[in-house]
């Protein structure tokens, strides 16, 4: 039960981040809240491609978590046992980076990354 709730919370937060990245890719001027604020305003074309790649990576990460929790994507079960630990490490780094970013507005993502870390860890140890 806890594993299921954790996977669902993780996925909801990941979808929110995917939507944010989609907005960046579409040219919404929120660049100050991403990448350390290096690209304030609208992302340049190259960074919009990076935002799309981030969306794809995040979607795959969510699929790994959902697979490990046995909620969806059974075809990923062969890799989800190891993949979940890659996700945990990814969010350890993400939590640190969003905490130490020079962009104050980007720090809003630190609690999100921390909750993703905690929920992915719950899935990993369940």
Would you give an account of this structure?
With 126 residues, the chain is an all-alpha fold. It contains 4 helices and no strands. The protein is globular.
Characteristic key phrases:
mainly alpha, 126 residues
- Tell me the strand percentage band: under 5%
Question: What can be said about the biggest beta sheet?
Answer: none
Distance between the termini: 10 Å
* Rounded Rg: 15 Å
What's the count of strands?
A: 0
The arrangement of helices and strands along the chain is HHHH
DSSP helical segment count: 4
SS class: mainly alpha
Helix content: over 70%
Query: Which parts are unreliable, with pLDDT below 50 for 5 consecutive residues or more?
Result: none
Could you report the average pLDDT, rounded to the nearest whole number? 96
> What coarse outline follows from CA principal-axis ratios?
globular
Write a brief caption for the model:
The protein has four helices and no strands.
SSE inventory with pairings:
Blueprint: H1 2-25, H2 45-68, H3 77-100, H4 109-125
Helix pairs in contact: 1-2, 1-4, 2-3, 3-4
